[in-house]
Design goal:
This protein is an all-beta fold. It is built from one helix and 15 strands. It has one helix at about 85-90, and strands spanning about 1-5, 10, 30, 35-40, 175-180, 185, 195, 205-210, 220-230, 230-235, 245, 250, 255, 265, 275-279. The strands form four sheets. Strands 6-5-15-14-11-12 form a six-stranded antiparallel sheet, with no helix packed on it.
């Protein structure tokens, strides 16, 4: 049986999507230790607590069909010899003779005429004249209009430059609020898996609940919160007293997507309860 992570509806084994809300169901596999059905991305077996990440996944080889080339004879056309170059077969076809001539061959073009430089032009004597008189500078006077009652438009002031407001990126932080003591717990940042439990030698908890009241009902390795993008999922990893979401039991090996306001109870009796919030 596969429980839907969205509406907790039990579905038969092998179902692809939920029968109630049509949500795609997570893939399942078998525990290599006890053979129980667990979710494919679960960290531990819900029955025996086996670490599923330590088990190697066997590689499946895909058979590749062998391509057989049919024995078809390939006809190769006969090679046709190129036509001989008759001009190259003639003696001295390229104009190269055995004896070298030091004189270049005479050209049939007429000889080049040598340009004669032109005669300089005769210099004409320039008569001395009196120095030029200074040119008087005329200062332009402003033209005063007869109509003095026309108002002068005020100077145009430049428009104020709009300053772009700085946008600050706010990072969404997830947190848990302990209902019994009203204590706030910030979830660790940049963690893909957050372990909830009590101190142990196998998997130390990221959220230690040993200092809270009624912590004796919580297992040492109790539950995990997985972070995938902006989504948070909670799953039970084989606790003794179970994990409850909104007073409904969460089966081992399944996970539930957390939404703001969800109630997470570690163990029975609602004695260790947390509220999930986004800040």
């Amino acid at each position: 049986m596969i429980v839907c992570p969205n509406c907790n509806h039990p579905n038969p084994d092998g179902a692809v999507q939920c029968e109630a809300c049509y949500t795609p169901l997570p893939a399942t596999t078998n525990c290599p230790s006890c053979g129980a059905t667990v979710q494919a991305d679960a960290a531990f077996c819900g029955q025996c607590g086996y670490n599923l990440h330590s088990a190697g996944v066997p590689h499946v080889h895909t058979a590749v069909a062998t391509t057989v080339t049919p024995d078809t004879p390939v006809e190769v056309p006969a090679l046709v010899p190129p036509d001989p170059l008759l001009e190259l077969l003639q003696p001295d076809a390229l104009g190269i003779s055995g004896s070298t001539n030091s004189h270049p061959p005479e050209s049939s073009l007429p000889p080049t005429e040598v340009a004669v430089p032109p005669e300089p032009a005769p210099q004409i004597p320039v008569a001395k004249s009196s120095p030029p008189e200074p040119v008087s500078t005329v200062v332009a006077q402003p033209v005063v209009s007869g109509q003095s009652n026309i108002p002068t438009p005020p100077p145009v002031e430049p428009a104020p430059t709009a300053t772009a407001a700085r946008t600050q990126l706010q990072q969404v932080t997830a947190r848990l609020i302990h209902v019994q003591s009203d204590r706030l717990i910030e979830l660790p940042q940049n963690f893909s898996v957050i372990h909830i439990g009590k101190p142990n030698d196998r998997i130390p908890p990221d959220i230690d609940v040993s200092g809270f009241p009624n912590s004796e009902i919580v297992s040492r390795i109790h539950a995990d919160i997985r972070v995938e993008g902006d989504a948070h999922y909670v799953e039970d990893v084989g606790s003794s007293n179970g994990t409850y979401i909104n007073n409904l039991p969460l089966l081992p090996g399944n996970r539930h997507r957390l939404r703001p306001g969800d109630r997470i109870s570690l163990g029975k009796g609602d004695l260790m309860t947390f509220l999930f919030q986004l800040a």
